[in-house]
Write a structure and sequence with these properties.
33% of the residues lie in helices and 18% in strands. The chain is of the alpha/beta class. The protein has a single domain, classed as Rossmann fold (3-Layer(aba) Sandwich). The protein has a 6-stranded mixed beta sheet, with helices on one face. The longest helix is centred in the first third of the chain and has 16 residues, at 9-24. The protein is globular.
Length: 176
């Protein structure tokens, strides 16, 4: 019953209006329900998000998620696709028509935002996936895993950087 209500044309219209309002109020505090995945490095956070969303995200043995990934799932009636972009002014929006290419695009954009090495960035990637088979619109957030010891090439305070990033998202995350 609730799934049908959330998936109605009226609900989708309301969520679209909220999205537009969030873009207009850039920097203002506007909060909506989100699922933020937090845990140690390489424990399967991205795999949990794949299980929820059906979207393959990058996975690796060492550090893979090096900047926040805000994954918005939206219902669409026709052709499935995704859009991806970095923070305002960092990158332009790219459309992805083949959903199996999402992981490659996330990896490419991560390197563009956080660099080719092993450092992390607090600048998020915004990925919006439009699919037919989702019950209702949902935002999932993947964050870098907690690292206790810096890898070669990482900042010595990587642990504190990641904890600060996690706290930013779980305490009172504000949408664009």
């Amino acid at each position: 019953m609730l799934g049908e209500q959330l998936n109605s044309d009226e609900s989708r219209g309301l969520l679209l209006a909220i999205d537009k309002m969030c873009e207009f109020l850039h920097g203002e505090k506007v909060t909506l329900s989100e699922i933020v995945v937090v845990g140690d490095q390489s424990v399967g956070k991205s795999s949990v998000l794949k299980a929820i969303s059906g979207i393959q995200l990058p996975r690796a043995q060492n550090i893979c998620t090096r900047c926040p990934l805000e994954l918005r799932m939206k219902t669409v009636q026709d052709k499935e696709y995704a859009t991806i972009r970095g923070s305002v002014g960092l990158t332009s929006e790219t459309r992805i028509d083949d959903l199996t290419k999402i992981a490659d695009e996330v990896t490419r954009l991560t390197s563009e935002i956080a660099g080719k090495g092993v450092n992390v960035s607090s600048n998020p990637i915004y990925l919006t996936v439009y699919k037919r088979d989702i019950m209702y619109d949902l935002t999932l957030i993947d964050l870098p895993g907690i690292t206790r010891n810096a890898l070669p090439g990482q900042a010595e305070n990587i642990h504190e950087q990641i904890l600060n990033l996690i706290n930013k998202y779980i305490e009172h995350h504000s949408l664009r």
